[in-house]
Design goal:
mainly alpha, 6 helices, about 75% helix, about 0% strand, globular
């Protein structure tokens, strides 16, 4: 039985540590950028506690998804190095998520400009790539022989 992601990998402690660590770090980066550097969170119309709580759930789901993606058999077969997989998965996921958010009209910017779009997508790429590199790093430092290729 060939599964795209082994259940053993998902049940391992390192899966959970990588998942929660990456999700927490990406959420922190999100908050630093949108809450501190740009003050975008002040501009939203829904209550901040609801927005930040939903964002936390989204980042938990994102961390889980990125972790599963890095463990996917098809991805491992094509790209042996976990760090290379991380450097591919982070930006691709970020661009995809940004495109979805743009299509449904989710934006912090009151006025849409190419500059704002490039800044937002650039930050999204940094955020998700940091998350995938953290997942890869945790997998590397907690691996057992023959499980991972750096």
């Amino acid at each position: 039985m060939n599964k795209s992601v082994s259940l053993g990998a998902m049940r391992s402690g390192r899966f959970y540590v990588a998942w929660i660590t990456a999700a927490g770090l990406m959420y922190l980066l999100f908050y630093l950028f949108h809450g501190v550097l740009t003050n975008d969170i002040l501009k939203i119309s829904i209550p901040k506690t609801i927005f930040l709580s939903v964002a936390a759930v989204v980042y938990l789901l994102l961390g889980f998804g990125l972790n599963v993606l890095l463990e996917a058999t098809f991805f491992k077969k094509e790209v042996k190095s976990v760090y290379t997989r991380a450097l591919i998965a982070g930006p691709v996921t970020a661009i995809f998520l940004y495109a979805v958010a743009m299509i449904v009209g989710i934006s912090f910017s009151a006025k849409f400009t190419l500059f704002n779009m490039l800044i937002d997508i650039g930050w999204q790429i940094v955020e998700q790539t940091v998350g995938t590199i953290v997942i890869a790093f945790i997998k590397v430092i907690t691996f057992t022989p023959d499980e991972i290729e750096v």
